[in-house]
Amino acid sequence: MRKTLILPWTEDWEISYLSEERKLKEIFNDDIVDIFHIGSTSIRAIGFAKPIIDILIAVKDIEAVDSFNAKLQEIGYEPRGENGIKGRRYFPKGREKRTHHVHIYQVGHVNIKKHLDFKAYLIAHPEDAASYGDLKRRIANQFPEDHYKYQEEKQIFVDELVEKAREWALKSKEG
């Protein structure tokens, strides 16, 4: 079972993202519309995160992504298909010691906006970001050997933040 490790935020995560971004752009070339560093490692104000870099890629055609599986495997990614989210392609890197998660969606998929609004909201609301980081530390200390319990326990708070981010993005768009 994977352990849950929470570490203080570090600029090394941004460096790791940029390095991986370059490799992924070389593989996908013109099929990429956009690429983003998402998740807790992309938000300094969270203060603490699992040391796993989450990457969001928007592509022109989600079906074409499967043709890149072999190239992604060459650089350490494991193709997992949709992995429970319709319209996504998911690729974790590092089996027991995960380093990256790549989430790929076709342009226009609702989860692209959801992830980007979540990140923008937490950057704009550092007090909520810090509360999220504190929660992560607390739950990881409570369930260090049970990654699934850790995920389950933080999901209620995440769902609340996602809703706040959605409402905030709507209001920002109106204003």
CATH architecture: 2-Layer Sandwich
CATH topology: Beta Polymerase, domain 2
Rg to the nearest angstrom? 16 Å
Strand order of the largest sheet: 2-4-6-5
Number of helices: 5
Count up the domains.
1
Main sheet characteristics: 4 strands, mixed
Series of secondary-structure elements, N-terminal to C-terminal: EHEEEHEEHHH
Calculate the mean pLDDT score and round it.
Answer: 96
Characteristics:
single chain, 175 residues, alpha+beta, Beta Polymerase, domain 2, 4-stranded mixed β-sheet, two-stranded antiparallel sheet, 5 helices, 47% helix, globular
Structural write-up:
There is one protein chain. The chain is of the alpha+beta class and 175 residues long. It has one domain (7-174): Beta Polymerase, domain 2 (2-Layer Sandwich). It is 47% helix and 18% strand. It contains 5 helices and 6 strands; from the N terminus they run βαβββαββααα. It has helices at residues 12-28, 69-74, 110-124, 126-142, 147-174, and strands at residues 7-8, 32-38, 48-49, 53-59, 88-93, 100-106. Strands 2-4-6-5 form a 4-stranded mixed beta sheet, sandwiched between helices. It has a two-stranded antiparallel ribbon with strand order 1-3. Strand 5 and strand 6 form a beta hairpin. Helix 4 packs antiparallel against helix 5. The longest helix has 28 residues, at 147-174. The N and C termini lie far apart (47 Å).
Brief write-up:
The protein is of the alpha+beta class and 175 residues long. The protein has helices at residues 12-28, 69-74, 110-124, 126-142, 147-174, and strands at residues 7-8, 32-38, 48-49, 53-59, 88-93, 100-106. The protein has five helices and six strands; from the N terminus they run E-H-E-E-E-H-E-E-H-H-H.
